[in-house]
Amino acid sequence: MKLESLTPREIVARLDRHIVGQAAAKKAVAIALRNRWRRQQLPPELRDEVAPKNILLIGPTGVGKTEIARRLAALARAPFLKVEASRYTEVGYHGRDVESMVRDLVKLAVNLVEREEAEQNAARAEKNAEERLLDALLPRPERGGGGGGGAVTVEEEAPVAPAAPAAEIARTPSGAIPLAAGEALPAGAEGGGNTREKFRRLLRAGQLDAAEVELELSVSAEPLAQVFSTMGAEEMGAELEEAFARMMPRRTRRRRLTVAEARRVLLAEETEKLLDREKVTREAVERAENLGIIFIDELDKIVGGAREAWGPDVSREGVQRDLLPIVEGTTVVTRYGNVRTEHILFIAAGAFHAHKPSDLIPELQGRFPIRVELSALKEADLLRILKEPENSLLKQYQALLATEGVELAFEERAVKRMAEYAALANSRAEDIGARRLHTIVEKVLGELSFNAPDLKGREKKVRITEKYVAERLAGILADQDLAKYIL
Question: For a Cys staple, 110 with which of 68, 225, 284, 474, CB 3.0–4.6 Å?
Answer without folding.
Answer: 284
